[in-house]
Structure formats: structure tokens, C-alpha cells
Amino acid sequence: MTDRAPDMIDVFMDSWRRERPDLDIEALAIIGRLSRFAGLVQDRLDAVFAEHGIQSWEFDVLAALRRAGEPYELTPGELDRALLITSGTTTHRVQRLEERGFVTRRKDDHDRRVVRVRLTDAGREAQALAHTAHAENETRIVADLEAGERAALLDGLIALGRILGDTDLPADQRPR
Fold this sequence. Notes:
The chain is mainly alpha-helical. The chain folds into two domains: about 10-50, no CATH class; about 55-165, Arc Repressor Mutant, subunit A. The chain has helices spanning about 10-20, 30-50, 55-65, 75-85, 85-100, 120-140, 145-165, and strands at about 75, 105, 115-120. A hairpin with a 7-residue loop joins strand 2 (about 105) and strand 3 (about 115-120). The radius of gyration is 21 Å and the shape is elongated.
């Protein structure tokens, strides 16, 4: 351990070393912190979204549609893949956003069996305003890390993602 004040994970690790010295708990130092920090980061993200009258999941759907480019629409299946959620969750989220006037649903012009979800002007405006604040918030969250620390953290997270199998993009999401 470096010259720093202990955190909760250090306390947990000390307790486990005492109670279960037979276990290899080295990974707890990483996994425990990843889990704990994910919640702390999400709290900070949610606070900024709340200032803009939206929830994190709403921003995610609006951002996926905005990233799609003009005319800012996707099928529900494309949204499922872009957001890594189930079709039932997508249906519920689209309904809620439609009630707020942020998206519309329409039948595809070429295949009436296909539904297209389109970002409305109100949805695009809500996403744009929240996105500016969101980007500034993310910058604040990592601002006190030195450039080398940010780079090392990013490299480590990318390596962990690779090991966990988070490298294969669906064909429709690969850069062209």
C-alpha cells in the first residue's frame, strides 16, 4: 500500500485477511474499488442529469438516437444493441420518452412490420443541453488525476475489458 489514508476496501481486505487467511483476496483491491467507484460515479452523473430534468437511462436513449445521425432514428432492435438492454426494457423506455415528447414511433416506409424510433426536436434539445453539462461533469470527475494517471487508468480498463470479452463490436457498430 502507498502513503495514503486507508479506504473501505482496505478495511474489508484487512478483515478478510484476519478471518480467512486461506483466501487470495488480492483481486478485491481492484474489483471492490471498481464496484464502489461505479456507484460513486453514477451518483455524480445522475445529479447532473436531474438538473436537466432527465434520468440517466433517458439520456442514454436520447444519446443513442443522436449518435445515429440524421434523421436521428433507430429500430428498437438497434436501440437494444446500442444500449445493451433487452427488448422489453427498450419498449418501456421508448414509451416513457414518447409520453414526454422526446421521441416518436412510426412504421418504416419500406417494411410496415418495422417500427422506427425518431428523436424529436424537443428530445434533441434536451439531449444537447444535458450532453454539454454531462461532458463537463465527466471532465470534473477525472480532472484531479494527472495526465499519466488518466492514461494508465484508461489502459488498465481497456485491458480488463479485453479480458472480460468486451471487445467485439456488433457488425453494425464497427467503424467503417
